Amino acid sequence: MADLTLGAIESRFADIIWSNEPISSTELSKRSEELLGWKKSTSFTVLKRLCEKGIFQNQKGRVTSLISRDDFYAAQSEKFVDETFDGSLPAFLAAFTARKGLTQNDVDTLRRMIDEYEEG
Description:
Layout: H1 8-20, E1 23-24, H2 25-36, H3 40-52, E2 56-59, E3 62-65, H4 69-85, H5 89-99, H6 104-119
Antiparallel strand pairs: 1-3, 2-3
């Protein structure tokens, strides 16, 4: 995937696809008009751009993803940590928790994730 970034509006458009795939390009343009207020031409322009990024494909008017929503956002998160924190997850967590903090539920979830990781 060449460009792993989506703007806010592109993300909303991508979520329409991920939530409804497979979806016809006609239905996608209708939903984009309803949910985003877009004209048909805008939908097709943005769809073409997201297909060029390797996130979706439009074959014979049928739009499907090439990468799942979870995989996309996981890869985007990895890229952010790599570029901003030199790949250090502890540095990211330290920066994140310095301002926002963690709830007890967050701590429990992180402990569970670490335990599962260590158990293999």
